[in-house]
């Protein structure tokens, strides 16, 4: 469970990248498509080349949604409720995709690349827990 | 046998060439114990693991982290025979250490994050791909002899 300390650290990390949210989103998705090609199967309609407008646009959406989650850490279920429906009923992304942390891993690599030593073990732990919690909420309605 | 492209081999060895095995090993193991605290179950004789600070400063953690990453270097040197390289270690982790292979995947992901934090932008998406592939192959090899 996210402790008060964890929540503070997640909020702090988010503030640190608040100026580059679009870049973070685009880079996370690019890394996910590069490192885990199976994730591309959910975007056959996208131009997945480096720098594509669609990747930037979608990365921005994803980061905005995560940012909303960061602002509502005490009530993730409600904050992500619409997205949870979307992923369960429309998108139907394979739930283990969430639990095997593919997006989380890539987001954390991007944070580590940008923050270097500032992405310290405690922060790493808090963000990992946060992304786990987000994944759990998104998978809630699957069945 | 796993196929490695020339580019993947180059990306792996160029990153490895710059890695401080002692530092990165210690950091990766410490992060494993901090981010996934249940992994501490394998290290009950390591002394004080009561807080992130204690774990990071723990000399046994540092020493073991170095040992683990040094062993990882064997995979880098033997990309074409990782299965053979880890055959004995796989048996050891199953028969003596009783480690759930899921933990190898966790450590692998953490190692990738540690590399990203050290190398910054130089740890490109192509680099990440090669290294995620490598840690996956190592994890698989270590699980292979389980029975």
Structural shape of chain A? globular
Number of helices of chain A: 8
Which structural class matches the secondary elements of chain B? mainly alpha
How large a portion of the residues of chain B is in β-strands, by DSSP E? under 5%
Shape of chain B: globular
List the domain count of chain A as a whole number: 1
CATH topology of chain B: Globin-like
Q: Could you tell me the CATH topology label of chain A.
A: Globin-like
Organism (chain B): Pachyramphus minor
Domain Globin (chain B): 3-147
Function (chain B): Involved in oxygen transport from the lung to the various peripheral tissues.
Subunit structure (chain B): Heterotetramer of two alpha chains and two beta chains.
Short description:
Chain B: Heterotetramer of two alpha chains and two beta chains. The complex is a heterodimer of chains A (143) and B (147). With 143 residues, chain A is mainly alpha-helical.
Summarize the SSE layout with pairings:
The complex is a heterodimer of chains A (143) and B (147).
Chain A: H1 4-16, H2 21-35, H3 53-71, H4 76-79, H5 81-91, H6 95-99, H7 102-115, H8 121-139
Helix pairs in contact in A: 1-8, 2-3, 2-7
Chain B: H1 6-18, H2 21-35, H3 52-57, H4 59-77, H5 82-85, H6 87-95, H7 102-119, H8 125-143
